[in-house]
């Protein structure tokens, strides 16, 4: 019977060592500074600098978020990138009054949408389910529900991915989705759900102190 070989690391007097690595805390698989960047020190930003947000940065964020799990690998999230002042003014008309100035001032606003025709990508994204295209063709309500649910899952990935590439975010609800769809998305057939202002924070970025969060003991029920 063949035996596998286990290679052992060999250190010599010439081996370079690094003593300043920030190793993860025992409870996490990432370093503390990463957890801070993505969650603990991250804030919902309302005020941004004039520094532009590049297409490369947005593409890098999508490169991360697309690997997050969705049902049947449907990945129905679609993004409308609203850059120009004219387009942001059009979008702002359909946003709740309290959020309009934030949309107008942000370098970029992403309209987070879903594609109810996601099943057309099954041959690429889930080839083992490609035979279900005909079923979903006749099940519009099922498709729309799956698109809605999984796009909202991906919305969470989007926030974390944008932070991971060094951007700050201001996610918001409170928009007339039917009006946004008619204004921007009628040709694609996408359905809008939420918006995210994206940029680089103008310190401190928010006028409010960090608020508390509920403890795990307050939010879990074990059965």
From TrEMBL:
<dbReference type="GO" id="GO:0016491">
    <property type="term" value="F:oxidoreductase activity"/>
</dbReference>
<dbReference type="InterPro" id="IPR000415">
    <property type="entry name" value="Nitroreductase-like"/>
</dbReference>
<feature type="domain" description="Nitroreductase">
    <location>
        <begin position="41"/>
        <end position="200"/>
    </location>
</feature>
<protein>
    <submittedName>
        <fullName>Nitroreductase</fullName>
    </submittedName>
</protein>
<dbReference type="InterPro" id="IPR050461">
    <property type="entry name" value="Nitroreductase_HadB/RutE"/>
</dbReference>
<dbReference type="Pfam" id="PF00881">
    <property type="entry name" value="Nitroreductase"/>
</dbReference>
<dbReference type="InterPro" id="IPR029479">
    <property type="entry name" value="Nitroreductase"/>
</dbReference>
């Amino acid at each position: 019977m063949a035996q596998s070989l286990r290679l052992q690391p060999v250190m010599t007097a010439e081996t370079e060592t690094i003593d300043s690595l920030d190793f993860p805390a025992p409870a996490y698989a990432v370093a503390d500074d990463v957890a801070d960047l993505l969650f603990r020190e991250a804030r919902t930003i309302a005020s941004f600098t004039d520094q532009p947000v590049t297409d490369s940065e947005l593409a890098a964020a999508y490169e991360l978020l697309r690997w997050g799990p969705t049902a049947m690998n449907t990945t129905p999230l679609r993004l409308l990138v609203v850059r120009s002042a004219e387009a942001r003014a059009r979008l702002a008309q359909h946003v709740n009054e309290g959020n309009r100035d934030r949309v107008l001032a942000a370098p970029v606003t992403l309209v987070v949408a879903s594609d109810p025709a996601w099943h057309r990508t099954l041959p690429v994204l889930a080839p083992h389910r490609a035979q279900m295209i005909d079923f979903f063709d006749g099940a519009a309500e099922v498709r729309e529900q799956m698109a809605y649910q999984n796009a909202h899952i991906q919305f969470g990935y989007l926030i974390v991915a944008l932070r991971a590439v060094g951007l700050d975010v201001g996610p918001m609800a409170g928009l007339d989705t039917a009006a946004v769809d008619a204004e921007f998305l009628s040709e694609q057939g996408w359905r809008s759900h939420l918006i995210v202002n994206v940029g680089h924070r103008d310190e401190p970025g928010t006028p409010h102190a960090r608020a508390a969060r509920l403890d795990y003991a307050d939010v879990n029920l074990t059965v």
